[in-house]
Amino acid sequence: MKYTLLEEIMTRKVVISAQEDPIERAAKRMNEHNISALPVVDGNQMVIGMITSDGVSRLVSVCR
Predict the structure, then answer these.
(1) What angle separates helix 53-63 from helix 23-33, to the nearest 10 degrees?
(2) What integer pLDDT is reported at residue 64 of this predicted model?
(3) How far apart, in Å, do the first and last CA atoms of the chain sit?
(4) Is residue 8 part of a domain?
(5) What helix, strand, coil percent values describe the chain, rounded to 5?
(6) What average pLDDT does the structure give for the chain?
(7) Cys-Cys link to 49, which of 2, 20, 40, 63 (CB 3.0-4.6 A)?
(8) Which residues contact 23 (CB under 8 A, 6 or more apart)?
(9) Does residue 5 lie within any of the structural domains?
(10) What b-and-e string marks burial along 2-12, b requiring 16 or more CB atoms within 10 Å of the CB?
């Protein structure tokens, strides 16, 4: 059985958000790139978390 490797299907030009970015900027990036999640990076460009469209939606609904 042949397995598909992640490197064959992964996204190479990753859209990211910095931990100090406002939530509005992350939401705009997700909308512009038609994606539902963004890796969040620190000052060294190391991934420290993820923000999802579901998370943004929950935050917006709580803030209203």
Answers:
(1) 140
(2) 67
(3) 52
(4) no
(5) 40, 20, 40
(6) 92
(7) 40
(8) 51, 56, 59
(9) no
(10) eeeeeeeeeee
- Residue-range definition of the domain harbouring residue 54: 16-63
Among 20, 54, 57, 19, residue whose Cα is nearest residue 40: 19
| pTM to 2 decimal places | 0.78
Residues 32 and 17: their CA atoms lie apart, in Å, by 13
Q: CA-to-CA distance for 38 and 50, rounded, in angstroms?
A: 6
* Residue 3 confidence class, pLDDT cut points 50, 70, 90: very high
What residue type is assigned to position 62 of the chain? V
- pLDDT(60) > 80: no
Q: SS3 of 34, please?
A: coil
